[in-house]
Amino acid sequence: MAEPKYKRVLLKLGGEALSGEGGYGIEPSVVEEVAAQIERVQRHQVQLAIVIGGGNIWRGQDNIARGMDRATADYMGMLATVINAMALQDALERRGLVTRCLTAIEMRAVAEPHIRRRALHHLELDRVVIFGAGTGNPYFTTDTAAALRALEINAEILLKATKVDGIYEEDPKINLRALKYQRINYKDALNLDKVAIMDNTALSLCMDNDLPIIVFDLMEPNSIERVILGEGIGTLVGRQPTVFG
Prior knowledge:
Layout: E1 8-13, H1 28-42, E2 47-52, H2 60-65, H3 70-93, E3 99-103, E4 112-113, H4 116-124, E5 128-132, H5 142-152, E6 157-162, E7 181-185, H6 186-190, H7 200-208, E8 213-217, H8 223-228, E9 235-238, E10 243-244
Parallel strand pairs: 1-2, 1-6, 2-5, 3-4, 3-5, 6-8, 7-9
Antiparallel strand pairs: 7-10, 8-9
């Protein structure tokens, strides 16, 4: 079996990753596919933590635009992430993986409260740790939560699974000739106006702490495993010079 390039990773999943083609709700077959990918990663004895979004259930920005209080909308979004975390936890455990769900907002009936040392203990016991409820604070995205949790657990890399195969200079759905970055440094990533990689708070947090990021397509076959084994898919964000690939 090939040796993994990384021993401890933080995987960021958007809530839309669980919704399938419909773009809303939870599609069981898609959750099963994500769980199957994670199971393959576990065979390499990689310590894996996951942060998951809630956009498939609750789109706070849409409701803020209609006049909803921002903090209220954000707290509702945090609850949506916990629903997704529980769905993924169930799919993983039915495959025999040992998991722990930790939430930034206490809800002890369904999950453990987030305590950094507890999360580290679970990882050291080879349990898959799923972080729910974002940072537990309004005005912060789950991208920022992913960067924060990755740093807290001393992850070697943050993996951001998306619906595109990397970062492009422009939206490849609009400009079919847009060039893809093989790697891009943090400052150039922060200056991209036409492409949303992750929010600037998350990117700045990774840059300040020298945490590399790989952006890749979740639905490519075995993509999570391939990234962890060091295959050059997706786009690497770090301190190295920017290169198109």
